[in-house]
Design brief:
The strands form 4 sheets. Strands 10-9-8-11-12-13-16 form a 7-stranded mixed sheet, sandwiched between helices. The longest helix has 25 residues, at 254-278. The chain is an alpha/beta fold and 543 residues long. It has 3 domains: 42-233, Malic enzyme, N-terminal domain (Rossmann fold, 3-Layer(aba) Sandwich); 257-445, 3-Layer(aba) Sandwich (Rossmann fold); 447-519, no CATH class. Helix content is 45%, strand content 12%. It has 23 helices and 16 strands. Helix 2 crosses helix 3 (69-78), helix 12 (254-278) crosses helix 20 (467-478) and helix 19 (450-459) packs across helix 22 (498-516). Strand 14 and strand 15 (437-439) form a beta hairpin. The chain is globular, with a radius of gyration of 24 Å. The structure holds oxaloacetate ion and magnesium ion. Oxaloacetate ion is lined by residues 89, 144, 232, 254-255, 401, 426, 445-446. Residues 63-246 form the Malic enzyme N-terminal domain.
Amino acid sequence: MTITLIPYWHNGVQKLKVAPQAPHPPKQGLTPPTFDVDVHIERCLMQLRSKTTNLEKYIYLSQLKHESPSIFYKLCLEHMPEITPIIYTPTVGEACVNFSHIYRRPEGLYVSIKDKGKIRSVLTNWPKVDDARIAVVTDGSRILGLGDLGVNGMGISIGKLSLYIAGAGIRPESTIPICLDLGTNTQRYLDDPFYLGMRQKRVADKEMEEFMDEFVREMTSVFPKLMIQFEDFSTDNAFKYLERFRKGNPVFNDDIQGTGAVVLSGLINAARLASAASKRPLTEHKILFFGAGSAGVGVAHQLMSFFTINGLTEEEARRQIYLVDSQGLVYDARGKLPEHKKYFSRDDYQGPPITDLLEIIDYVRPTALLGLSTIGGAFTNEVIEAMALINPRPIIFPLSNPVTLAECTFEDAVVHTRGMVLFASGSPFPEQQYNGNTLYPGQGNNMYIFPGLGLAAILARVSEITDSMVEASSLGLANVLTSEETALDLLYPRIGRIREISAHIAKEVIRAAQKAGVDRAHNLRKMSDADLLRFINERMWQP
Ligand SMILES: O=C([O-])CC(=O)C(=O)O
Ligand SMILES: [Mg+2]
């Protein structure tokens, strides 16, 4: 027997290890005579395409993932644009709504309010405690724009982690999808005999707080190398628990910070393209937020920090931002406001309340209109035309998920701006033909950010995730476009390049972590950028 040595990196030092022996060929007769993996990927694709509904496709893929993770992830990587909308937004939304009906087998970890006081004993039941590096945790209270889905929210934790594995090469056994069952206020589920969660209303704030304190304390103790991504908590709790736990723990909130980073990145590239006509840098744009929940306010804060880094005072930066919520323009004289909206409330408007979006556009004259309202179709043709009337290249981002809740379609945005729109949505839309040109919609979804950010957090073993790291992920994404992509007016890179994109983002985030002094893998500090990038690529799991 010959022994082959292969080089690898450990703590920044190149070492050698014995190459694994080729697996024994399958015993003759137990597989078909001419089985071939590459042909099998095509076979799976053919089987997938034969399903007539998206939900059936979702079920097919989750069975495939269970039976053969390597084939599943190979399929994902080779056909990212086709697979992503099934395992993730928008189909994952439908899968969550129906989760208790399509349920096949346990996947992930359920921690319920009845475990309060003994959460540790639930966490230690996880079969791969030592491998755990990343958990996506939801309480199901605001799944995409679909509202309180209770324990059915598990589907979103599973979907996000599939993208971590496919998009950033996190090892499958390092991931833990978690759903916290704190009850649900959705009566339809409480009445549903198939519903898999506790049949009770959501617990009161104080009880949730005690539960969350115990949960995070035990998570960091049972899984000391774990990063936690909070996902789809209702707005108040999203802000509250991010602030409560982010100091000294590697936690981040995908809806506030991930969405903030991805939208900033799209705005940077949109402003670059728009400036050819308007000569206006992003810092001079006026941004109107239609929707003031966790995502809207998260994006507004991300934008603020970009503005101030680029020379505006805090006051100047704040003046560029206008929030609209369900009661119209957010301004001081309107009366009491929830905490997360106060900072952006306008003091230069005295009333009366303006609720009509067209009137608000007329008053603000925004250069960019961002939809984070979960009100499908809120950007009517008149709204789109109004934006086109005041901007040569209007920036219109209907970001609500899933696709049915998008504020407008790409087609409407193209037609009513005569092809001039700079567009990104949260969920995917098909490209459009206009005047003989193909126009491409951007997908401003946090899926571009979290895989690379999480990979960086794991590799650099960070003690916390700073604003500067989130900012670095955003700028990293904005700068990763190829010249071919820029020439096509794309705002985001093609999703098929996700591994390359994630590696680049991870490098930028690790550098930011080092600057902030929150990295614990000090050996990465002395690597050159090229070595760090190679190290990141080598660490990615390959199906
Ligand atoms: O999951 C997605 O597609 C993006 C997201 O975080 C959300 O909409 O809550
Ligand atoms: Mg989310």
